[in-house]
Amino acid sequence: MSRDGIPIMIAEKKIIWRHHTSHGQRIFVPPLAIGIACAVFIVMILTMGILDLKRSEKSLVSFLENQGVAIIEVVQRLSQENLDLIIQAGDRGDGSTFAPPREEALYPKTWLTTELAELGREVDNIWQADHLSDIGLKQFAAEQGLWFVAVMNQQEQVVFQNRSLPAEYFSTADANTRPPQITLGLLTELAQQKKISYIALKRKDGSGTVIIMLDREGLLYWGLKVSVQKAIEKLGEGQKQGLIYMTITNKKGMVLGKSGRQPETWRPNDMHVYELLAGTMKKESRKVLYLKKNILDMALPLYINGKVAGIVRIGLDKESTDSILKENTTNLIIFMIIVVFITIFSMWVLYHNQNRHLAGIVEIERRLEKAERLSALGQLAAGVAHEIRNPLNAISMACQRLKREYAPADEEKGPEFQLLSGVIRDEIRRLNGIIEEFLSFSKTRRLELRLYPVTEVLQKIVNLINEEAKSQGITIKTQGFETPEIMPMDMDKLQQAFLNFVKNAMESITGEGEITIAVNRKDKNYISISIADTGCGISPEEMEQIFNPEYTTKEKGLGLGLALAHEIIRGHGGEIGISSTSQVGTTFEIILPTAKSAEGLNNQKTVT
Questions:
Q1: Which CATH number applies to 444-606: 3.40.50.150, 3.30.565.10, 3.30.70.590, 3.30.450.180?
Q2: With 535 labelled, which of 387, 475, 526, 585 sits at a CA distance of 20 to 30 A?
Q3: pLDDT tens digits along 37-59
Q4: Could you say which architecture CATH assigns to the domain 93-222?
Q5: What percent of the chain shows pLDDT beyond 90?
Protein backbone atom coordinates (compact mmCIF):
# COMPACT_ATOMS: atom_id res chain seq x y z
CA MET A 1 0.00 0.00 0.00
CA SER A 2 1.34 3.49 -0.79
CA ARG A 3 0.30 7.06 -0.46
CA ASP A 4 1.54 9.61 -3.05
CA GLY A 5 3.99 7.00 -4.32
CA ILE A 6 5.57 6.42 -0.90
CA PRO A 7 5.19 2.88 0.64
CA ILE A 8 3.56 2.78 4.06
CA MET A 9 4.23 -0.08 6.53
CA ILE A 10 1.14 -1.48 8.30
CA ALA A 11 1.89 -3.22 11.62
CA GLU A 12 0.26 -6.63 12.04
CA LYS A 13 -1.83 -6.60 15.19
CA LYS A 14 -1.55 -10.35 15.80
CA ILE A 15 2.19 -10.14 16.37
CA ILE A 16 1.88 -7.29 18.80
CA TRP A 17 -0.93 -9.11 20.65
CA ARG A 18 1.17 -12.26 20.97
CA HIS A 19 4.14 -10.31 22.20
CA HIS A 20 2.11 -8.77 25.03
CA THR A 21 0.29 -11.93 26.12
CA SER A 22 0.77 -12.32 29.89
CA HIS A 23 1.77 -15.60 31.51
CA GLY A 24 -1.38 -15.58 33.60
CA GLN A 25 -3.57 -15.74 30.46
CA ARG A 26 -1.91 -18.89 29.15
CA ILE A 27 -3.46 -22.27 29.81
CA PHE A 28 -0.85 -24.86 30.75
CA VAL A 29 -2.73 -27.80 29.32
CA PRO A 30 0.06 -30.44 29.46
CA PRO A 31 0.98 -29.81 33.15
CA LEU A 32 -2.70 -29.66 34.05
CA ALA A 33 -3.37 -32.93 32.29
CA ILE A 34 -0.31 -34.52 33.86
CA GLY A 35 -1.37 -33.15 37.26
CA ILE A 36 -4.81 -34.71 36.93
CA ALA A 37 -3.28 -37.99 35.79
CA CYS A 38 -0.82 -37.91 38.70
CA ALA A 39 -3.64 -37.12 41.14
CA VAL A 40 -5.65 -40.07 39.80
CA PHE A 41 -2.53 -42.22 40.03
CA ILE A 42 -1.95 -41.14 43.64
CA VAL A 43 -5.58 -41.89 44.52
CA MET A 44 -5.30 -45.29 42.85
CA ILE A 45 -2.07 -46.06 44.70
CA LEU A 46 -3.61 -44.91 47.98
CA THR A 47 -6.75 -46.97 47.37
CA MET A 48 -4.73 -50.03 46.41
CA GLY A 49 -2.54 -49.52 49.47
CA ILE A 50 -5.54 -49.30 51.79
CA LEU A 51 -7.11 -52.35 50.19
CA ASP A 52 -3.79 -54.16 50.48
CA LEU A 53 -3.57 -53.23 54.16
CA LYS A 54 -7.08 -54.57 54.69
CA ARG A 55 -6.20 -57.75 52.84
CA SER A 56 -3.04 -58.09 54.91
CA GLU A 57 -4.98 -57.52 58.11
CA LYS A 58 -7.58 -60.05 57.03
CA SER A 59 -4.86 -62.57 56.16
CA LEU A 60 -3.11 -62.04 59.48
CA VAL A 61 -6.38 -62.40 61.39
CA SER A 62 -7.09 -65.57 59.40
CA PHE A 63 -3.62 -66.81 60.33
CA LEU A 64 -4.32 -66.14 64.00
CA GLU A 65 -7.68 -67.85 63.70
CA ASN A 66 -6.03 -70.88 62.15
CA GLN A 67 -3.50 -70.85 64.96
CA GLY A 68 -6.35 -70.74 67.48
CA VAL A 69 -8.17 -73.56 65.69
CA ALA A 70 -4.99 -75.64 65.78
CA ILE A 71 -4.63 -75.06 69.54
CA ILE A 72 -8.26 -75.97 70.17
CA GLU A 73 -7.95 -79.09 68.02
CA VAL A 74 -5.04 -80.21 70.18
CA VAL A 75 -7.03 -79.54 73.38
CA GLN A 76 -10.05 -81.30 71.91
CA ARG A 77 -8.02 -84.34 70.89
CA LEU A 78 -6.31 -84.61 74.27
CA SER A 79 -9.65 -84.15 76.08
CA GLN A 80 -11.22 -86.92 74.01
CA GLU A 81 -8.33 -89.26 74.73
CA ASN A 82 -8.46 -88.50 78.46
CA LEU A 83 -12.22 -88.97 78.59
CA ASP A 84 -11.95 -92.31 76.80
CA LEU A 85 -9.33 -93.45 79.30
CA ILE A 86 -11.53 -92.37 82.24
CA ILE A 87 -14.51 -94.29 80.85
CA GLN A 88 -12.38 -97.36 80.23
CA ALA A 89 -10.95 -97.15 83.76
CA GLY A 90 -14.45 -96.90 85.22
CA ASP A 91 -15.54 -100.05 83.36
CA ARG A 92 -12.69 -102.23 84.70
CA GLY A 93 -13.09 -104.29 87.83
CA ASP A 94 -16.28 -103.73 89.75
CA GLY A 95 -16.68 -100.40 87.89
CA SER A 96 -18.51 -98.76 90.77
CA THR A 97 -16.31 -97.68 93.60
CA PHE A 98 -13.62 -94.99 93.68
CA ALA A 99 -11.22 -95.28 96.58
CA PRO A 100 -9.08 -92.34 97.60
CA PRO A 101 -5.57 -92.85 96.25
CA ARG A 102 -2.68 -92.91 98.68
CA GLU A 103 -0.52 -90.89 96.30
CA GLU A 104 -1.17 -88.97 93.09
CA ALA A 105 -0.69 -91.05 89.95
CA LEU A 106 -0.94 -90.29 86.31
CA TYR A 107 -3.90 -92.58 85.54
CA PRO A 108 -7.32 -91.33 84.43
CA LYS A 109 -9.07 -92.97 87.38
CA THR A 110 -6.66 -91.24 89.74
CA TRP A 111 -7.25 -87.85 88.09
CA LEU A 112 -11.01 -88.07 88.69
CA THR A 113 -10.61 -89.45 92.20
CA THR A 114 -8.18 -86.68 93.08
CA GLU A 115 -10.56 -83.99 91.87
CA LEU A 116 -13.49 -85.46 93.83
CA ALA A 117 -11.30 -85.83 96.89
CA GLU A 118 -10.50 -82.10 96.66
CA LEU A 119 -14.22 -81.40 96.68
CA GLY A 120 -14.60 -83.65 99.77
CA ARG A 121 -11.86 -81.74 101.58
CA GLU A 122 -13.60 -78.45 100.71
CA VAL A 123 -16.85 -79.75 102.21
CA ASP A 124 -14.98 -80.97 105.28
CA ASN A 125 -13.39 -77.54 105.77
CA ILE A 126 -16.82 -75.93 105.68
CA TRP A 127 -18.11 -78.58 108.14
CA GLN A 128 -15.25 -77.93 110.53
CA ALA A 129 -16.01 -74.22 110.39
CA ASP A 130 -19.62 -74.92 111.40
CA HIS A 131 -20.91 -73.27 108.26
CA LEU A 132 -22.47 -76.39 106.79
CA SER A 133 -26.19 -76.98 106.31
CA ASP A 134 -28.54 -78.92 104.06
CA ILE A 135 -29.25 -75.77 102.05
CA GLY A 136 -25.55 -75.04 101.71
CA LEU A 137 -24.86 -78.58 100.53
CA LYS A 138 -27.70 -78.34 98.03
CA GLN A 139 -26.25 -75.16 96.55
CA PHE A 140 -22.75 -76.64 96.56
CA ALA A 141 -23.93 -79.80 94.78
CA ALA A 142 -25.77 -77.79 92.14
CA GLU A 143 -22.71 -75.62 91.43
CA GLN A 144 -20.34 -78.62 91.20
CA GLY A 145 -22.64 -80.93 89.25
CA LEU A 146 -22.85 -83.52 92.09
CA TRP A 147 -25.81 -85.85 92.46
CA PHE A 148 -25.50 -86.47 96.21
CA VAL A 149 -23.35 -84.88 98.92
CA ALA A 150 -23.56 -85.79 102.60
CA VAL A 151 -21.50 -85.73 105.76
CA MET A 152 -21.69 -88.57 108.36
CA ASN A 153 -20.60 -88.54 111.97
CA GLN A 154 -18.46 -91.12 113.70
CA GLN A 155 -21.51 -93.38 114.16
CA GLU A 156 -22.11 -93.28 110.36
CA GLN A 157 -25.20 -91.20 110.79
CA VAL A 158 -26.00 -88.55 108.15
CA VAL A 159 -25.66 -85.11 109.66
CA PHE A 160 -26.19 -82.99 106.51
CA GLN A 161 -27.15 -83.90 102.98
CA ASN A 162 -28.23 -82.10 99.83
CA ARG A 163 -31.19 -84.44 99.18
CA SER A 164 -33.08 -87.40 100.63
CA LEU A 165 -32.56 -90.65 98.80
CA PRO A 166 -35.80 -92.32 97.60
CA ALA A 167 -36.66 -95.66 99.27
CA GLU A 168 -36.74 -97.51 95.98
CA TYR A 169 -32.99 -96.92 95.71
CA PHE A 170 -32.48 -99.46 98.52
CA SER A 171 -33.41 -103.15 98.15
CA THR A 172 -33.79 -103.60 101.89
CA ALA A 173 -36.52 -101.01 102.16
CA ASP A 174 -40.18 -101.13 101.33
CA ALA A 175 -41.35 -98.52 98.89
CA ASN A 176 -44.11 -97.43 101.36
CA THR A 177 -41.80 -97.18 104.32
CA ARG A 178 -39.14 -94.71 105.25
CA PRO A 179 -35.69 -95.42 103.73
CA PRO A 180 -33.23 -97.06 106.08
CA GLN A 181 -30.33 -95.23 107.69
CA ILE A 182 -27.58 -94.50 105.14
CA THR A 183 -24.44 -96.47 105.81
CA LEU A 184 -21.30 -97.16 103.80
CA GLY A 185 -22.55 -100.63 103.17
CA LEU A 186 -25.84 -99.35 101.77
CA LEU A 187 -23.92 -96.88 99.58
CA THR A 188 -21.82 -99.73 98.18
CA GLU A 189 -24.98 -101.70 97.45
CA LEU A 190 -26.56 -98.63 95.82
CA ALA A 191 -23.51 -98.04 93.67
CA GLN A 192 -23.62 -101.64 92.44
CA GLN A 193 -27.34 -101.67 91.64
CA LYS A 194 -27.91 -98.16 90.22
CA LYS A 195 -24.50 -97.70 88.57
CA ILE A 196 -23.85 -94.63 90.67
CA SER A 197 -20.26 -93.89 91.62
CA TYR A 198 -19.27 -92.46 94.92
CA ILE A 199 -16.29 -91.48 96.97
CA ALA A 200 -16.10 -91.57 100.78
CA LEU A 201 -13.51 -89.37 102.41
CA LYS A 202 -12.84 -90.04 106.11
CA ARG A 203 -11.31 -87.53 108.43
CA LYS A 204 -7.89 -88.33 109.71
CA ASP A 205 -9.14 -88.51 113.28
CA GLY A 206 -12.06 -90.75 112.25
CA SER A 207 -14.64 -88.31 113.54
CA GLY A 208 -16.66 -88.26 110.34
CA THR A 209 -16.96 -89.03 106.65
CA VAL A 210 -17.75 -86.94 103.55
CA ILE A 211 -19.67 -88.77 100.85
CA ILE A 212 -19.91 -87.59 97.22
CA MET A 213 -22.01 -89.52 94.70
CA LEU A 214 -22.18 -89.02 90.96
CA ASP A 215 -24.90 -90.19 88.64
CA ARG A 216 -24.16 -90.84 85.00
CA GLU A 217 -24.65 -87.18 84.03
CA GLY A 218 -22.41 -85.99 86.85
CA LEU A 219 -19.81 -88.62 86.02
CA LEU A 220 -19.81 -87.44 82.41
CA TYR A 221 -19.45 -83.79 83.51
CA TRP A 222 -16.59 -84.48 85.91
CA GLY A 223 -14.92 -86.84 83.52
CA LEU A 224 -15.07 -84.21 80.81
CA LYS A 225 -13.92 -81.52 83.20
CA VAL A 226 -10.93 -83.55 84.36
CA SER A 227 -10.12 -84.50 80.78
CA VAL A 228 -10.25 -80.89 79.59
CA GLN A 229 -8.24 -79.55 82.51
CA LYS A 230 -5.54 -82.18 82.03
CA ALA A 231 -5.48 -81.43 78.30
CA ILE A 232 -4.98 -77.72 79.06
CA GLU A 233 -2.23 -78.54 81.53
CA LYS A 234 -0.53 -80.78 78.99
CA LEU A 235 -0.83 -78.08 76.38
CA GLY A 236 0.86 -75.72 78.84
CA GLU A 237 3.88 -78.03 78.99
CA GLY A 238 4.69 -77.15 75.38
CA GLN A 239 5.09 -73.80 73.74
CA LYS A 240 1.91 -71.78 73.51
CA GLN A 241 3.35 -68.45 72.46
CA GLY A 242 0.64 -65.91 71.75
CA LEU A 243 -2.04 -67.63 73.89
CA ILE A 244 -3.23 -65.15 76.54
CA TYR A 245 -6.06 -67.13 78.07
CA MET A 246 -8.30 -70.13 77.50
CA THR A 247 -11.69 -70.93 79.02
CA ILE A 248 -13.78 -73.99 78.20
CA THR A 249 -17.40 -74.23 79.37
CA ASN A 250 -20.13 -76.78 78.79
CA LYS A 251 -23.56 -76.02 77.38
CA LYS A 252 -24.83 -74.94 80.78
CA GLY A 253 -22.02 -72.41 81.14
CA MET A 254 -20.15 -74.42 83.77
CA VAL A 255 -16.38 -74.12 83.52
CA LEU A 256 -14.63 -77.29 82.37
CA GLY A 257 -11.12 -75.88 82.32
CA LYS A 258 -9.21 -72.64 82.09
CA SER A 259 -5.74 -71.12 81.95
CA GLY A 260 -4.41 -67.61 82.13
CA ARG A 261 -6.10 -64.52 83.48
CA GLN A 262 -9.72 -64.71 82.48
CA PRO A 263 -11.36 -61.79 80.64
CA GLU A 264 -14.74 -60.31 81.31
CA THR A 265 -17.76 -62.37 80.39
CA TRP A 266 -19.34 -61.75 77.03
CA ARG A 267 -22.01 -59.14 76.81
CA PRO A 268 -25.08 -59.70 74.66
CA ASN A 269 -24.31 -59.68 70.93
CA ASP A 270 -20.56 -60.01 71.53
CA MET A 271 -20.56 -63.58 70.27
CA HIS A 272 -23.21 -65.76 68.66
CA VAL A 273 -23.14 -68.35 71.46
CA TYR A 274 -26.33 -70.13 70.44
CA GLU A 275 -25.16 -70.60 66.86
CA LEU A 276 -21.84 -71.97 68.11
CA LEU A 277 -23.56 -74.42 70.49
CA ALA A 278 -25.92 -75.46 67.72
CA GLY A 279 -22.98 -76.15 65.44
CA THR A 280 -24.23 -73.80 62.70
CA MET A 281 -21.21 -71.53 63.15
CA LYS A 282 -17.70 -72.96 63.09
CA LYS A 283 -15.88 -70.04 64.67
CA GLU A 284 -16.16 -66.38 65.54
CA SER A 285 -13.59 -63.76 66.48
CA ARG A 286 -13.33 -60.11 67.41
CA LYS A 287 -10.54 -57.65 68.15
CA VAL A 288 -10.51 -56.33 71.71
CA LEU A 289 -8.20 -54.44 74.05
CA TYR A 290 -7.27 -56.64 77.00
CA LEU A 291 -4.65 -55.81 79.65
CA LYS A 292 -3.49 -52.92 77.44
CA LYS A 293 -2.89 -55.34 74.61
CA ASN A 294 -4.62 -55.81 71.31
CA ILE A 295 -5.82 -59.41 71.24
CA LEU A 296 -8.03 -61.59 69.10
CA ASP A 297 -10.89 -63.00 71.18
CA MET A 298 -12.08 -66.28 69.61
CA ALA A 299 -14.94 -68.65 70.30
CA LEU A 300 -15.25 -72.18 68.86
CA PRO A 301 -17.46 -75.15 69.67
CA LEU A 302 -15.92 -78.04 71.62
CA TYR A 303 -16.66 -81.40 70.03
CA ILE A 304 -16.64 -84.53 72.20
CA ASN A 305 -17.77 -87.86 70.74
CA GLY A 306 -18.72 -86.02 67.58
CA LYS A 307 -21.16 -83.67 69.33
CA VAL A 308 -20.93 -80.10 70.61
CA ALA A 309 -20.16 -80.38 74.32
CA GLY A 310 -19.34 -76.73 75.03
CA ILE A 311 -17.56 -73.60 73.91
CA VAL A 312 -13.86 -72.85 73.87
CA ARG A 313 -12.86 -69.22 74.34
CA ILE A 314 -9.25 -68.20 73.74
CA GLY A 315 -7.37 -64.94 73.48
CA LEU A 316 -4.44 -64.63 71.05
CA ASP A 317 -1.85 -61.87 71.21
CA LYS A 318 -1.95 -59.62 68.12
CA GLU A 319 1.35 -57.90 68.83
CA SER A 320 3.24 -59.67 66.03
CA THR A 321 0.47 -59.12 63.50
CA ASP A 322 0.05 -55.50 64.56
CA SER A 323 3.77 -54.92 64.11
CA ILE A 324 3.55 -56.34 60.59
CA LEU A 325 0.55 -54.13 59.82
CA LYS A 326 2.33 -51.13 61.30
CA GLU A 327 5.38 -51.82 59.15
CA ASN A 328 3.18 -52.19 56.06
CA THR A 329 1.39 -48.94 56.93
CA THR A 330 4.72 -47.16 57.39
CA ASN A 331 5.95 -48.49 54.06
CA LEU A 332 2.75 -47.34 52.39
CA ILE A 333 3.07 -43.86 53.89
CA ILE A 334 6.71 -43.61 52.81
CA PHE A 335 5.81 -44.83 49.34
CA MET A 336 2.99 -42.30 49.12
CA ILE A 337 5.30 -39.50 50.23
CA ILE A 338 7.82 -40.52 47.56
CA VAL A 339 5.09 -40.69 44.90
CA VAL A 340 3.70 -37.28 45.91
CA PHE A 341 7.21 -35.79 45.94
CA ILE A 342 7.99 -37.23 42.51
CA THR A 343 4.64 -35.98 41.23
CA ILE A 344 5.15 -32.46 42.58
CA PHE A 345 8.72 -32.42 41.29
CA SER A 346 7.56 -33.60 37.86
CA MET A 347 4.87 -30.94 37.83
CA TRP A 348 7.45 -28.31 38.74
CA VAL A 349 9.82 -29.52 36.01
CA LEU A 350 7.00 -29.48 33.45
CA TYR A 351 5.88 -26.04 34.59
CA HIS A 352 9.44 -24.73 34.51
CA ASN A 353 10.20 -26.25 31.09
CA GLN A 354 6.96 -24.99 29.61
CA ASN A 355 7.60 -21.51 30.96
CA ARG A 356 11.04 -21.68 29.42
CA HIS A 357 9.63 -22.87 26.10
CA LEU A 358 6.93 -20.21 26.22
CA ALA A 359 9.58 -17.60 26.92
CA GLY A 360 11.45 -18.94 23.90
CA ILE A 361 8.30 -18.70 21.82
CA VAL A 362 7.80 -15.12 22.97
CA GLU A 363 11.41 -14.38 22.06
CA ILE A 364 10.92 -15.96 18.64
CA GLU A 365 7.76 -13.90 18.17
CA ARG A 366 9.68 -10.81 19.14
CA ARG A 367 12.40 -11.64 16.67
CA LEU A 368 9.85 -12.36 13.96
CA GLU A 369 8.21 -9.04 14.72
CA LYS A 370 11.58 -7.38 14.57
CA ALA A 371 12.40 -9.15 11.31
CA GLU A 372 9.11 -8.03 9.80
CA ARG A 373 9.72 -4.50 10.97
CA LEU A 374 13.22 -4.56 9.53
CA SER A 375 11.91 -5.98 6.29
CA ALA A 376 9.29 -3.28 6.12
CA LEU A 377 11.96 -0.78 7.09
CA GLY A 378 14.14 -1.96 4.23
CA GLN A 379 11.29 -1.67 1.77
CA LEU A 380 10.46 1.74 3.12
CA ALA A 381 14.14 2.77 2.89
CA ALA A 382 14.32 1.72 -0.73
CA GLY A 383 11.15 3.64 -1.55
CA VAL A 384 12.25 6.68 0.42
CA ALA A 385 15.66 6.63 -1.25
CA HIS A 386 14.21 6.60 -4.74
CA GLU A 387 11.51 9.13 -3.92
CA ILE A 388 13.58 11.59 -1.86
CA ARG A 389 17.06 11.45 -3.39
CA ASN A 390 16.10 13.20 -6.61
CA PRO A 391 14.27 16.10 -4.84
CA LEU A 392 17.18 16.42 -2.45
CA ASN A 393 19.65 16.64 -5.34
CA ALA A 394 17.48 19.31 -6.97
CA ILE A 395 17.22 21.25 -3.72
CA SER A 396 20.96 20.97 -3.18
CA MET A 397 21.72 22.24 -6.72
CA ALA A 398 19.23 25.04 -6.29
CA CYS A 399 20.78 26.01 -2.98
CA GLN A 400 24.25 26.14 -4.57
CA ARG A 401 22.94 28.25 -7.42
CA LEU A 402 21.20 30.62 -5.02
CA LYS A 403 24.36 30.94 -2.99
CA ARG A 404 26.45 31.57 -6.08
CA GLU A 405 24.20 33.70 -8.31
CA TYR A 406 21.66 35.32 -6.02
CA ALA A 407 23.77 36.67 -3.21
CA PRO A 408 22.25 39.96 -1.88
CA ALA A 409 23.91 43.16 -2.96
CA ASP A 410 23.56 44.55 0.50
CA GLU A 411 26.72 43.59 2.37
CA GLU A 412 24.91 43.62 5.69
CA LYS A 413 22.59 40.85 4.53
CA GLY A 414 25.39 38.80 3.01
CA PRO A 415 26.46 36.96 6.19
CA GLU A 416 22.87 36.12 7.09
CA PHE A 417 22.30 34.82 3.54
CA GLN A 418 25.39 32.63 3.75
CA LEU A 419 24.27 31.31 7.15
CA LEU A 420 20.80 30.36 5.95
CA SER A 421 22.08 28.76 2.78
CA GLY A 422 24.62 26.82 4.87
CA VAL A 423 21.87 25.56 7.16
CA ILE A 424 19.90 24.37 4.14
CA ARG A 425 22.98 22.62 2.73
CA ASP A 426 23.76 20.93 6.08
CA GLU A 427 20.21 19.69 6.51
CA ILE A 428 20.25 18.31 2.97
CA ARG A 429 23.49 16.52 3.83
CA ARG A 430 21.91 15.13 7.06
CA LEU A 431 18.87 13.86 5.16
CA ASN A 432 21.18 12.21 2.66
CA GLY A 433 23.05 10.50 5.54
CA ILE A 434 19.78 9.14 6.94
CA ILE A 435 18.94 7.74 3.51
CA GLU A 436 22.37 6.13 3.31
CA GLU A 437 21.79 4.45 6.69
CA PHE A 438 18.49 3.08 5.48
CA LEU A 439 20.03 1.80 2.27
CA SER A 440 22.97 0.20 4.05
CA PHE A 441 20.73 -1.62 6.55
CA SER A 442 18.15 -2.78 4.00
CA LYS A 443 20.54 -4.20 1.45
CA THR A 444 20.97 -7.96 1.19
CA ARG A 445 24.13 -8.67 3.18
CA ARG A 446 25.63 -11.70 1.48
CA LEU A 447 29.24 -12.16 2.51
CA GLU A 448 31.89 -13.09 -0.02
CA LEU A 449 34.77 -14.40 2.06
CA ARG A 450 38.33 -14.03 0.83
CA LEU A 451 41.64 -14.24 2.66
CA TYR A 452 42.87 -10.71 3.39
CA PRO A 453 44.99 -8.99 6.07
CA VAL A 454 42.74 -7.44 8.69
CA THR A 455 45.45 -4.90 9.55
CA GLU A 456 45.23 -3.39 6.05
CA VAL A 457 41.47 -2.98 6.44
CA LEU A 458 41.96 -1.20 9.73
CA GLN A 459 44.72 1.00 8.26
CA LYS A 460 42.36 2.11 5.46
CA ILE A 461 39.82 3.14 8.09
CA VAL A 462 42.47 5.09 10.02
CA ASN A 463 43.54 6.88 6.84
CA LEU A 464 39.90 7.62 5.97
CA ILE A 465 38.84 8.98 9.36
CA ASN A 466 42.08 10.56 10.57
CA GLU A 467 41.48 14.05 9.14
CA GLU A 468 37.94 14.24 10.51
CA ALA A 469 39.19 13.06 13.92
CA LYS A 470 41.91 15.71 14.03
CA SER A 471 39.37 18.39 13.22
CA GLN A 472 37.42 17.30 16.34
CA GLY A 473 40.51 17.17 18.53
CA ILE A 474 40.62 13.34 18.64
CA THR A 475 43.86 11.39 18.35
CA ILE A 476 43.83 7.93 16.76
CA LYS A 477 46.51 5.46 17.89
CA THR A 478 47.27 2.02 16.46
CA GLN A 479 48.92 -1.05 17.98
CA GLY A 480 49.93 -4.39 16.45
CA PHE A 481 49.63 -3.21 12.84
CA GLU A 482 53.23 -4.28 12.06
CA THR A 483 52.40 -7.99 11.60
CA PRO A 484 49.70 -8.68 9.00
CA GLU A 485 46.99 -11.00 10.32
CA ILE A 486 45.33 -12.99 7.52
CA MET A 487 41.74 -14.10 7.88
CA PRO A 488 38.74 -14.93 5.65
CA MET A 489 36.56 -11.84 5.26
CA ASP A 490 34.26 -9.83 3.11
CA MET A 491 36.53 -6.81 3.01
CA ASP A 492 33.91 -4.19 2.19
CA LYS A 493 31.43 -5.44 4.81
CA LEU A 494 34.06 -5.85 7.53
CA GLN A 495 35.46 -2.40 6.74
CA GLN A 496 31.98 -0.97 7.12
CA ALA A 497 31.60 -2.70 10.51
CA PHE A 498 34.94 -1.41 11.83
CA LEU A 499 34.14 2.06 10.53
CA ASN A 500 30.86 2.04 12.42
CA PHE A 501 32.67 1.09 15.65
CA VAL A 502 35.20 3.93 15.14
CA LYS A 503 32.48 6.45 14.33
CA ASN A 504 30.57 5.41 17.44
CA ALA A 505 33.76 5.94 19.48
CA MET A 506 34.23 9.41 17.96
CA GLU A 507 30.63 10.36 18.74
CA SER A 508 31.10 9.37 22.40
CA ILE A 509 33.98 11.85 22.84
CA THR A 510 33.14 15.43 23.71
CA GLY A 511 36.05 17.76 23.08
CA GLU A 512 39.51 16.28 22.92
CA GLY A 513 40.04 12.56 23.30
CA GLU A 514 41.81 9.47 22.13
CA ILE A 515 40.88 6.32 20.20
CA THR A 516 43.17 3.28 20.27
CA ILE A 517 42.86 0.50 17.68
CA ALA A 518 44.85 -2.63 18.61
CA VAL A 519 45.32 -6.00 16.92
CA ASN A 520 46.43 -9.00 19.02
CA ARG A 521 46.73 -12.73 18.49
CA LYS A 522 44.15 -14.37 20.83
CA ASP A 523 45.41 -17.88 20.15
CA LYS A 524 46.30 -19.92 17.07
CA ASN A 525 42.70 -19.87 15.85
CA TYR A 526 41.46 -16.38 16.78
CA ILE A 527 42.61 -12.78 16.64
CA SER A 528 41.36 -9.85 18.71
CA ILE A 529 40.68 -6.33 17.45
CA SER A 530 39.98 -3.79 20.22
CA ILE A 531 38.67 -0.26 19.68
CA ALA A 532 39.00 1.79 22.88
CA ASP A 533 37.92 5.39 23.39
CA THR A 534 38.08 7.93 26.18
CA GLY A 535 34.47 8.98 25.79
CA CYS A 536 31.54 9.20 28.16
CA GLY A 537 31.10 5.46 28.55
CA ILE A 538 28.01 3.25 28.33
CA SER A 539 25.68 2.43 31.21
CA PRO A 540 24.77 -1.24 31.94
CA GLU A 541 21.19 -0.59 30.74
CA GLU A 542 22.43 0.87 27.45
CA MET A 543 24.92 -1.97 27.04
CA GLU A 544 22.03 -4.46 26.82
CA GLN A 545 20.37 -2.50 24.00
CA ILE A 546 23.14 -1.00 21.85
CA PHE A 547 22.91 -3.72 19.17
CA ASN A 548 19.13 -3.43 18.99
CA PRO A 549 18.08 -1.64 15.76
CA GLU A 550 15.14 -0.12 17.61
CA TYR A 551 17.33 1.52 20.24
CA THR A 552 19.37 4.70 19.86
CA THR A 553 20.60 7.57 22.06
CA LYS A 554 21.50 9.80 19.13
CA GLU A 555 19.66 13.03 18.61
CA LYS A 556 20.45 12.81 14.88
CA GLY A 557 20.34 9.66 12.74
CA LEU A 558 18.71 6.30 13.38
CA GLY A 559 21.45 4.52 15.32
CA LEU A 560 21.61 1.54 12.95
CA GLY A 561 25.41 1.52 12.71
CA LEU A 562 26.19 -0.80 15.65
CA ALA A 563 23.29 -3.10 14.78
CA LEU A 564 24.68 -3.49 11.26
CA ALA A 565 28.23 -3.99 12.58
CA HIS A 566 26.99 -6.66 14.98
CA GLU A 567 25.35 -8.62 12.16
CA ILE A 568 28.47 -8.38 10.00
CA ILE A 569 30.74 -9.61 12.80
CA ARG A 570 28.34 -12.47 13.58
CA GLY A 571 28.26 -13.38 9.89
CA HIS A 572 32.05 -13.75 10.00
CA GLY A 573 31.73 -16.18 12.94
CA GLY A 574 33.04 -13.65 15.43
CA GLU A 575 32.09 -12.33 18.82
CA ILE A 576 31.91 -8.86 20.37
CA GLY A 577 32.82 -8.05 23.95
CA ILE A 578 32.16 -4.69 25.64
CA SER A 579 33.69 -3.13 28.73
CA SER A 580 32.86 0.39 29.76
CA THR A 581 33.36 2.80 32.66
CA SER A 582 31.30 5.94 32.98
CA GLN A 583 33.26 9.11 32.10
CA VAL A 584 36.39 6.98 31.46
CA GLY A 585 35.73 5.24 28.20
CA THR A 586 34.53 2.18 26.35
CA THR A 587 36.37 -0.71 24.73
CA PHE A 588 34.87 -2.93 22.02
CA GLU A 589 36.75 -6.21 21.57
CA ILE A 590 36.00 -8.03 18.31
CA ILE A 591 37.21 -11.64 18.19
CA LEU A 592 37.38 -13.15 14.68
CA PRO A 593 38.48 -16.60 13.46
CA THR A 594 41.74 -16.89 11.55
CA ALA A 595 42.21 -18.74 8.28
CA LYS A 596 42.76 -22.15 9.94
CA SER A 597 39.66 -21.99 12.17
CA ALA A 598 37.48 -20.75 9.29
CA GLU A 599 38.35 -23.45 6.78
CA GLY A 600 34.84 -24.86 7.12
CA LEU A 601 33.13 -21.58 6.19
CA ASN A 602 31.53 -21.34 2.76
CA ASN A 603 32.83 -18.83 0.35
CA GLN A 604 29.49 -17.07 0.58
CA LYS A 605 27.53 -16.47 3.75
CA THR A 606 24.47 -14.35 4.35
CA VAL A 607 24.36 -12.02 7.35
CA THR A 608 21.02 -12.42 9.16
A1: 3.30.565.10
A2: 526
A3: 778 878 888 888 888 888 888 88
A4: 2-Layer Sandwich (3.30)
A5: 6
